Amino acid sequence: QVQLVESGGGLVQAGDSLRLSCLFSGRTFSWYAWFRQAPGKDREFVGSRSWSELFTYYADSLEGRFTISIDAAKDTMYLQMDNLQPEDTAVYFCASRLSDTSLHHLLREKSGYDFWGQGTQVTVSS
To answer: CA angle, 106 as apex, 118 and 101 as ends, to 5°?
Structure first.
């Protein structure tokens, strides 16, 4: 049974850092990603990383502050978030994709992923 479980969310102040974790079990995947959803907004792409670690993509507005990594030995993906701002407040979801693809633009879409975690809340106060 495939499971993705996020953890590490919480309440922080503007300028702080936070690291989210996504423990995946059941099997390995070709691609892993983070998305986020703020209240009243659609779920948006944060970043994705291939299992091979050859490719990593980020939302343009987040590159430089957010970093995705994978620890294969621990079956865990991380999202390091630095210099957090109130607009980063959202529920953060991890996702995984079974098959590889050369159409990397699909990896920025929710429909590009097969499995999702339940989400973890990140709240940034000003």
So the answer is: 100
